[in-house]
Amino acid sequence: MENKAVWLAGPGKPPRISSAPTPKPGPGDLLVKGVAVQLGEWKIQAGLTSATLTYPTMIGLLLSVIVEKIGSGVSRFAPGDHVASNSTGVLRKDARFGAYQRFALVRQEMTAKISRRSFDEAASLPTAGGGGRILFATGARPEMQFPPGVSGFFKRFIDDYLDPNNKDFVQWVWWDYFEVAFTDGRIKSLPLEVKQGLAQVNEVWDLLRREQPGGKRLILVP
């Protein structure tokens, strides 16, 4: 089986399409043939993140595919199954799991059968949200002094996703102190002390999860 892939030579460098080895599934792996892949991870290609990858590599995460082969220990899937998966390629730093190729590896625990859904629809399901609540934490207090690279990342996030023109989306986001807002419109303040450095991010996240269980996403904006 000839494999073709979108190779990324390094951050900020243009991608190229060329041949790639066809990976072999290990224990718990599925070798899949891509049908639809969700577009994303452009910040990695543009060199706008601090992700440390071994180049050249293949990126891409969310895809809907047909199972070609299964590794040992795989019991829920068989060749020919139509499935959707998060390949976790960037997180694994393993190009074999990059979604932007004809044949890729995915893990069985990150994969589900797509039933009657189309491949295009299934590729977008992992980020659809399903009407669930999304948790935001925002603030701009003086003590929130993150390293410049981190501050730049959050600024880009605001530019991309929190455009002030989208008033319906951001009307409940406050920038002068910490608030927690859910998509159902309820807002609750939390007694947070955010100190200098990244070490506090996990501490804040743990506190938010204890105070307001059910949130799916945390966004810290200095």
Account of the 3D structure:
The chain is α+β, with helices and mostly antiparallel strands and 222 residues long. The chain has a single domain (4-127, 167-220), classed as Quinone Oxidoreductase, Chain A, domain 1 (Alpha-Beta Complex). The chain contains 6 helices and 10 strands. It has helices spanning 42-46, 89-92, 119-124, 148-161, 167-170, 199-211; strands at 3-7, 16-20, 29-37, 62-70, 82-86, 103-107, 111-113, 136-138, 179-181, 187-188. The strands form 3 sheets. It has a 5-stranded antiparallel beta sheet. It has a 3-stranded antiparallel beta sheet with strand order 8-9-10, with no helix packed on it. A two-stranded antiparallel sheet has the order 1-2. β9 (179-181) and β10 (187-188) form a beta hairpin. The radius of gyration is 20 Å and the shape is globular. The termini are far apart. Mean pLDDT is 67; it is low at 129-201 and 214-222.
